[in-house]
Design a protein that fits this description.
Elements: H1 2-6, H2 12-44, H3 49-98, H4 101-104, H5 109-151, H6 153-200, H7 202-207, H8 211-236, H9 239-264, H10 269-311, E1 331-338, E2 349-356, E3 361-366, H11 372-379, E4 387-392, E5 395-396, H12 402-408, E6 409-412, E7 421-422, H13 423-427, H14 436-445, H15 449-452, E8 462-463, H16 472-484, E9 490-494, H17 502-515, E10 520-524, H18 528-531, E11 536-541, E12 544-549, H19 551-557, H20 559-570
Parallel strand pairs: 3-10, 3-11, 6-9, 9-10
Antiparallel strand pairs: 1-2, 1-4, 4-5, 7-8, 11-12
Helix pairs in contact: 2-3, 2-5, 2-10, 3-5, 5-6, 5-10, 6-8, 6-9, 6-10, 9-10, 14-16, 19-20
Amino acid sequence: MRQVLHQLKGYKRDTFLCIGLTALEVVMEILLPLITALIIDKGLEGSNLPAVYRYGILMVAMAFLSLVFGALAGKFAASAASGLSANLREAIYANIQTFSFSNLDKFSVPGLVTRMTTDITNVQNAFMMIIRVAVRAPLNLIFSFAMCLMISARLSMMFLIAVAFLVIVLGAIMAATMRIFDRVFKKYDDLNASVQENVSAIRVVKAFVREGYENSKFARASAGLYKMFVKAEGLLAFNNPAMMIAIYFCVISVSWFGAQFIVGGSLTTGNLTSLFSYIMSLLMSLMMLSMVVVMITMSLASVRRIGEVLSETPDLQNPAHPVETVADGSIDFNHVNFSYKHGSGKNALSDIDLHIASGQTIGVIGGTGSGKSSLVNLICRLYDVDSGSVYVGGRDVREYDMEALRNQVSVVLQKNTLFSGTILENLRWGNPEATDQECVEACKAACADEFIDRLPDGYHTRIERGGANVSGGQKQRLCIARALLKKPKVLILDDSTSAVDTATDAKIRSAFAREIPGTTKIIIAQRISSVEHADRILVLDNGRVDAFDTHENLLKTNAIYQEIYESQVKGGGDFDQPA
């Protein structure tokens, strides 16, 4: 809760103004029944018309002030609540940007989306209600009860009986609904996950004619959420009957005993009228408080979920005095052990001892789950090793400023991502200052110019979200060109040419040798043809180095490499290359 309220920042003034104006509004409303009693007792019953006018004008003035105070309080409440939600979204988004891959692994994408939308909206609504209603209701309750005691202490006891009844009933309802609402917001994650998965993979869904299955899956998630909300709201529906029982009890008991007091001369008609107004105000204050408790109950689950993201600290931190420049592209793995869950005993990489000279081209090959992607993730420090060390340019990667390191170690990951915008705008993710000519040269090296020149708007063609309007191979080539614009010391291609034909793959490798001879190139691939011309080839098996040698030597000495080679050659070669 402290973390959430800390995001008020520049909106504290609006919050306190809202509270102050709400208090003034309550004071005006509390005094109105007292003025009504004076009009009845001193004006009407005393046949004193000037007193009626005098108190009537005072009542109108107080009602007008109450209206003004209420309107201003509402304005400042809206400003403070909206400001809080805006700051929360910015704080969550900014914190997510600092997360390492291991931090991101703790949260699902739908879960983060729900936190930044549904959860923050719940907190915004609850905060607005708290600074308006949670201030108004207690003040109204306290002042109204004080006025009741001033008018008739004995009749005020009826209210205490009603309060005791309401506290028991509403307390039982709140205890039951709190547990339900805690589960409701977790269901939102499942619903969002179903939507995101279906929309992002809609082509696959249609290709396999699975619309019916996806509809039923979404319907189940939606029905589960519906049932939980019905259950919670069904319990909350008992608020109104309980409140009406308390109100009728107070009205009947005050009417009965009040009539006897009037006949006995211990209470005036004006006082009884005021007493009715104050008792109704008291009970409505309790009703408002019960609504506040409901809203707080709903928002507390959201506050906890938001707090989880805000309190998450990045696993990877810059050192106190970071190194800002990478000397060259040399890479050294010194007996590295790495696991995605530290201390689990399940290593993704075990005892990796590897030394690569600057400017070399290294191929990496191995079966699924052999640790290829894990290996290259350590070079640009997307994760930290469990033991051992990784050196780039002669320095431990943990000594570098992470931004400086990643600017010099360019990675094209397995999952290529393009963003909404033109081709040029996507390319300049690699270098915001790149000229048009530099972008063209990078695209030529990545063989992307071949299809860009055929597009009606060329480099100004708009890319849809996620690169939906380009093919997989075109997307890969654009991502390679984007990486080349960084002019890195180390270039890592993590199976990034899998969707291009072997002829284009060969052209790209030839361009690398010609355009960036001093850059260390690490090429992860499934095809032998993509790595056979590398200076050396690393064969990984179950997270360990099985061999590290040239193509020719591996064919003679390494069983795994021989098996991969034989399966591709005897199977007819690559899918787009004749046997």
